[in-house]
Amino acid sequence: MSGGVTGGDQGFVPPGEIDARLGRLEDTDQIRRLTQEYRRLLDARDLDGYGRLFAADGEWLGGTGYGQTPAGITAMLNERLPARGSDHPTAWHLVTEPEIDLDGDRATGTVTWTWVGRGDADTPAMRLLGHYDDIYVRERGRWRYQRRVAHTDIPHRPLDLPPGGYGGTGSPPMSGGDTGGVVPPGDSTDERLRRLEDLEQIRQLFVEYKRVLDKQDFAAYGALFAADGEFIATPQEGLQQAGGPAAIQALVEAMPGSLLGSAPGDDFHVVINPLIELDADDPDRARAEVTWLYVVKGDDGLPSPAKLGHYDDQLVREDGRWRFLRREAPTDIG
């Protein structure tokens, strides 16, 4: 046979189905981002921005209390959260990837969270662990919380429900208005797909960074940086800075026994909370913020959190691959 595709229509996907499948992936990614924005704004104590993550009649219920509407939730938290004695974060939330079930302009999800504070000897200490039960709604083209219930599992703290419960069906989804940074209307299928691929490739870059660092494969570590890439860290032991893959490799090769474990298996990095921002003007650039937790083997052989910090990243696509143009690694605890 010639001039056609064998097997009739086998393998053909109607354009409408492709658009729907892309839309589901985009919705999932936007809800994933909502989870990270929530965490970032809460830790920064930007409670006005935090409130705006909720729908017009959105609800929040947790150990701190109950609030409804963006302004009401912000007011409740301003009243009940303890005053922070510093302009810098004093507690940090680590959140897992959400389990999401999409249903058109609504969705449900579950997210595990931990609350980490500064413990004895200036080391990270896990204070609480729990989970969020979420209902999301698309409002004015953007995903927001219709309802978030924050359960504390360890130590277990039962929630006091307000009179009549915290139910309600919420308002119907709204359309039009500001998209809040979501997918611009009119973008081609290729552009939409490329954005999703870029986000996934950057997430994989973070995973690869952690993997080769813990293996102490320092040549592979240096290769994750662009030709003019920079690495900057500010531990208590002093500034660590280098430029270019070879110099960065040499810098980290000198760290085992001091800033790193003496051998692979002595220490591990937990990398979590990725918040990625693709450059709207340059498709080959991006920025990101990621939380890291440094865990060592304690004297009793058990894992012992030693430090907590975050990465501030500038990323660039070089030779078709995303790499670090600049990675700063401030230490927040330890």
Description:
With 334 residues, this protein is α+β, with helices and mostly antiparallel strands. The protein has helices at residues 15-43, 47-51, 70-80, 189-215, 218-222, 245-253, and strands at residues 54-62, 65-68, 91-95, 99-103, 106-118, 124-139, 142-154, 225-234, 240-243, 267-278, 285-297, 303-318, 321-333. Strands 1, 2, 3, 4, 5, 6 and 7 form a seven-stranded mixed beta sheet that branches. Strands 9-8-13-12-11-10 form a six-stranded mixed beta sheet, sandwiched between helices. Strand 6 and strand 7 form a beta hairpin. The longest helix is centred in the N-terminal third of the chain and has 29 residues, at 15-43.
Summary tags:
334 residues; alpha+beta; 7-stranded mixed sheet; 26% helix; disordered N terminus
Strand content: 35-45%
What is the mean predicted local confidence, pLDDT?
A: 89
Intertermini distance: 69 Å
Compressed to H and E, one letter per element, the order equals: HHEEHEEEEEHHEEHEEEE
C-alpha Rg (nearest Å): 22 Å
Low-confidence stretches: 1-8, 167-181
| Fraction of helical residues | 25-40%
Q: How many beta-strand elements?
A: 13
Structural class: alpha+beta
Shape: globular
Number of helices: 6
Largest sheet: 7 strands, mixed
TL;DR of this structure?
With 334 residues, this protein is an alpha+beta fold. The protein has 6 helices and 13 strands.
Element layout with pairings:
Blueprint: H1 15-43, H2 47-51, E1 54-62, E2 65-68, H3 70-80, E3 91-95, E4 99-103, E5 106-118, E6 124-139, E7 142-154, H4 189-215, H5 218-222, E8 225-234, E9 240-243, H6 245-253, E10 267-278, E11 285-297, E12 303-318, E13 321-333
Parallel strand pairs: 1-7, 8-13
Antiparallel strand pairs: 1-2, 3-5, 4-5, 5-6, 6-7, 8-9, 10-11, 11-12, 12-13
